[in-house]
Amino acid sequence: MSRPRRIAVGLAVLAVAGCAAAPPVPAPVAAPQAESTSPKPDPLPVTPLPVPEVVIVQAPPAPAAPQASPPPSSPTQVATVQPMLASPVSEEDQQALALLADLQRYVVEPGEDLKRELTAAAAALARTRSDANRIRVAMLLTLPAAGPPDDARALTLLEPLMAKNSNGPVSPLKQIAAVIYGQIAERTRIIKEEQKRTAAAQEKLDALRAVERSLYLERSRNAGGGGGGGGGGGTGR
After folding, report:
1. From 102's CA, which of 63, 130, 152, 225 has a CA 20 to 30 Å away?
2. Taking the model in full, what pTM does it have?
């Protein structure tokens, strides 16, 4: 291509490029009403994020504090509660407990210790004739290891306790005395019945011996008389 021709082609290209690049036109301002009536674009899909599971751990309940007892409302209430908390033991109850401990000890003590116990209990009874001393001596009098049993004296010592307060409430000492008195009385009754049976048997035995003796004497007399008569007849011949 010749030079003039190339210049012409270049000028033609520049002209076409100038026509193509037109000046910018300002964008038209849309009316508000037209904008509200125009359809809205579809919203983009939103993918929900996974929410971690929440675990609620409950702490164990704290132990309840001990509740203090309410103070008494009046002095009268204090006086009513104190006897219920600690009831005093009477002197007679203390004597009964001590007596029961002594009676339990007497069962396992050897004979020499029981003899000393009987001597000491008799001396205490001579000084103070109390119900406990009477029961203690009566119990020792029934034990063969303490000496020859004396049931009659033991019953004599216990009889005043059996007759005392017969219509009133039964005291602990009287209950113990009643048990011992009943045992001694029952044993005395059995011994008396055995003695009666033994005496009756002895009487029967003595009667049989008397009959046997009388029969023996009768036979002896008969035998002696017959022998004398026979001797006399022989001499006459």
Report:
1. 152
2. 0.52
